[in-house]
Amino acid sequence: MVAKRKKTATEPRLSTASRKWKQAAESGAVSSGTAAVDAESFLNRVRELKREIESREAAKQRFILQQSSDASSAARIEVRELDCDQVLAELERVILSAAKSILEGRGLSYKVPRRSAGNQEYVEELERIVLKDGVAIRNFASVASVRKTTIMTRVLQLVHELCTRRIHTTKRDLFYTDVKLFRQQTESDDVLNDVACLIGCTRNSLNVVASEKGIVVGRVTFQEDGDLIDCTRMGVGGKAIPPYTDRITNITSDAEFILLVEKDAAFMRLAEDRFYNRVKCIIVTAKGQPDVGTRLFLRRLKRELHLPILGLVDSDPYGLKILSVYMSGSKGMSYDSANLATPDIKWLGIRPTDLDRYGIPEQCRLAMTENDLKTGKDMLEEDFIKKNPAWHRELSLMVKRKEKAEIQALSNFGFQYLTEVYLPEKIRHGDWI
Amino acid sequence: MVAKRKKTATEPRLSTASRKWKQAAESGAVSSGTAAVDAESFLNRVRELKREIESREAAKQRFILQQSSDASSAARIEVRELDCDQVLAELERVILSAAKSILEGRGLSYKVPRRSAGNQEYVEELERIVLKDGVAIRNFASVASVRKTTIMTRVLQLVHELCTRRIHTTKRDLFYTDVKLFRQQTESDDVLNDVACLIGCTRNSLNVVASEKGIVVGRVTFQEDGDLIDCTRMGVGGKAIPPYTDRITNITSDAEFILLVEKDAAFMRLAEDRFYNRVKCIIVTAKGQPDVGTRLFLRRLKRELHLPILGLVDSDPYGLKILSVYMSGSKGMSYDSANLATPDIKWLGIRPTDLDRYGIPEQCRLAMTENDLKTGKDMLEEDFIKKNPAWHRELSLMVKRKEKAEIQALSNFGFQYLTEVYLPEKIRHGDWI
Q1: Each residue's pLDDT tens digit in chain B (433 positions)?
Q2: Which candidate, A33, A257, B239, B309, has a CA 20 to 30 Å from the CA of A59?
Q3: How open is the CA angle B416-B417-B419, to the nearest 5 degrees?
Q4: Do residue B172 and residue A406 have CB atoms under 8 angstroms apart?
């Protein structure tokens, strides 16, 4: 049955193709999984994108170098990934200077970078949020800060133990090591972020990690804690991305790009069809909101393999939000943004303009709720949307039409439409923004 | 600092051991990951349990055989796992008989097993919920059932397409293939369960699967869609369990038991410490509420490897609920219980009596909310708790004390207390119920 669709002024070519494919699929003329991706020119647009990204990357590096040699520019706090020995050395430096201060009669205190919103800024050239140079003094002799100072000292000791033993733990476990002192997990979590800023390292460098959620499949191999992992041989379920990437080494790949997928249903389709063998790519998903483990992993892939990243998300404000979290980091951990953010992700789909171009029937589109609309309107004002006119146009259209759609809406044309038609079309035409 | 603890009349030996271990850990005397699991006798209790389970399994088989030869016993609907060709044959049989009925002037109708609560029962000998033999006639000529009958016909056609192409899809994708007809996903989901009952197969046999959530690590290898997966070489992140197990073949293992873990934080600790190399086991988690994929996988492991399963969950009513879902299935899919349920899981910990035995300080225990207490009290009345007096005692104690605790509470004694002391102690003493 051919889906009825809205008449619009946009390009009707693809929706005709969709219709034909649906008919072919229903009559059994499409043989599953074998549609070869032909022609030499198929990957031209992806390769162009790769060159473009490389030259932008070089420009950014020049900007960073210039900044660091330019003493007049605003100081910023950017933390680095440190190994256990480096963290231990920094911890010992902090404690030594605290001990010295006590011996000299000035008492125990720590100088902690402020992480409040007023001390944050979005840096256009770096494409991410960073901390400015505001600092707070946390003093043991003050009634207002005695508790925080005590908690800080305890957390420093616990992190020292983790790094000495070279093991990882979760924030929850850390909290339970001294509930009497911490009282609430928010308190130990909060101080943990302070400690990362104080040491000048990422939270993961402190060996306190979030739980894992992401999975990966496709054309990449690496060593994980000594085990060789070949992600083309991970069956249909894929490999669970570990919560910490410091055990991952020797990443190699012959992929042309990374396909970042919002939802596991789409991931499952791609994995079962072994899409990565037809179009050489690496497929990553965090199953919804990106967790720290997946963000770190994506960033490692990008930094070591220099591949373009194409995002496949729902056509709703949350899909965009998810891309933005991967790209510029969340505000809560802005000090860590350099190490978690992966700038330059292209929005492949599902985009509001796709709904008409691919002739997605009205029944598969959903009305946006009041809340969706509010989120969409707020996002139109955000820096990361404003600086990308094409994204701004798409989001404006979404808010104007008050329509959203899930990746699954493509199933209207058949179960394998996503892997057999939609993605190959998109990639061939370089249809990302 | 030694945690203050409640004075109780219970065995203080272990809590003293806990305290000593904590002191040793804090003074650096415990070397991480190397504590060898000595003595030949260490696994005696696990091996005893294995023999016990095997003999019970044999008794159950005898019961099933006797039932099927005993015509007077109540008829029950139990679906089987079928492969694509078998499902296709059944689908064609159903449609053929429908066509015949139309040609004979009796119109289109389907005989669908009832899945309502009144048609369910818990079978003690089988240790799971099953469907009784109530049947409903779904008639196209009746105004009340015309819509359901139409949806049913469409779902039969879609499942036929999936099985012909030998691909899997999610319930959400299935819904989107015909939103105009289905209107709500609940309607297509509901009919899908009916189709499974009608065909006499599991929902997964229809190639419509839930999304994946679980991970596995440890001493097991298998083929997944042709790829050899060795779960001892899956780094620290583990292998994602696929949403369908029909692509998994050739399971082999030298493990002594399966450790089923509620939470990913505990899983992470076990994986990083490579606990499975010190005590040969397979470690599985669904990260909270078990999904169908993980339940199917666990059942496959149990059925093919005949290993005891030890459950490590939070000491609260939800921890127990999770064990019960693995063991006897959820009510919504009772027709499928035989293929999803893994009876005979032992409750290793954290148990209410552990809180005192291991001297878990009061600060690490949490007060149960009104809701927790209600859930706990309701569970005391349920069959699966009542038939196991030891579980009933523990749950009664929990409700009486109004105290719960998470697995992470063990971190109070040190980050690796779980793998270095708690689990080895439990296993050595056969301390499960």
Answers
A1: 444 444 444 444 556 666 676 676 666 555 444 445 556 678 888 888 888 888 887 887 787 777 666 544 456 667 788 899 999 999 999 999 999 999 999 899 998 888 877 777 777 777 666 777 888 888 888 888 999 999 999 999 999 999 998 989 888 888 888 888 888 888 999 999 899 888 888 888 899 987 778 999 999 999 999 999 999 999 999 999 998 888 899 999 999 999 999 988 899 999 999 999 999 999 999 988 898 889 989 999 998 998 999 999 999 999 999 998 898 776 666 667 667 888 889 999 899 999 999 998 888 888 899 999 999 999 999 887 888 899 999 999 999 999 999 998 898 888 899 999 999 999 999 999 9
A2: A257
A3: 70
A4: yes
Three-class SS of residue A194?
helix
Written as six digits, the tokens of B258 are: 């399966």
Residue B364 near chain A (CB below 8 Å): yes
By residue range, what is the domain housing residue A165?
76-209
User: Does this complex have an ipTM over 0.85?
Assistant: no
Spot the catalytic one: B110, B176, B244, B335: B176
The minimal CB distance from A235 to the residues B224, B269, B272 is found for B224
Check whether residue A390 and residue A249 sit in a common domain. Answer: yes
Domain shared by A38 and A84, yes or no: no
Catalytic residue among A176, A358, A417, A422: A176
From chain B, the residues in CB contact with A247 under 8 A are 235-236
Report whether pLDDT(A274) > 50. Answer: yes
| Neighbour-count burial of A45, counting CB atoms closer than 10 A to its CB (0-12 exposed, 13-18 middle, 19+ buried) | middle
In this structure, is residue A3 part of a structural domain? no
Q: Is residue A4 part of a domain?
A: no
SS3 A312: strand
Per the CB < 8 A criterion, the answer to whether A180 and B5 are in contact is: no
Q: Please answer yes or no on whether B411 and A176 come within 8 Å at the CB atom.
A: yes
**B chain contacts of residue A165, beta-carbon cutoff 8 Å:** 32, 415-416
B201 and B225, same domain (yes or no)? no
Count: domains in chain B:
2
Q: Where are the beta strands (DSSP E) in A96-147?
A: 109-113, 120-123, 128-132, 135-139
What is the average pLDDT across A251-258? 94
Residue that is written with structure tokens 């339940």 in the block:
B295
Q: Is B301 left (phi over 0), alpha (psi -120 to 50) or beta?
A: alpha
CA distance B235 to chain A (A): 5
Residue B326 known to be catalytic: no
Query: CATH number, domain at A25?
Result: 3.40.1360.10
Residue A363: list chain B partners with CB under 8 A.
Answer: 179-180
Q: What is the pLDDT of residues B294-334, one digit of tens each?
A: 998 999 999 899 899 999 999 999 999 999 889 877 666 66
Residues 6+ positions from A412 with CB-CB distance below 8 Å: A3, A22, A360, A361, A364, B176, B177, B178, B179
CA distance to partner chain B, nearest, from residue A121 (Å):
33
For B216, the closest chain A residue by CA position comes to A240
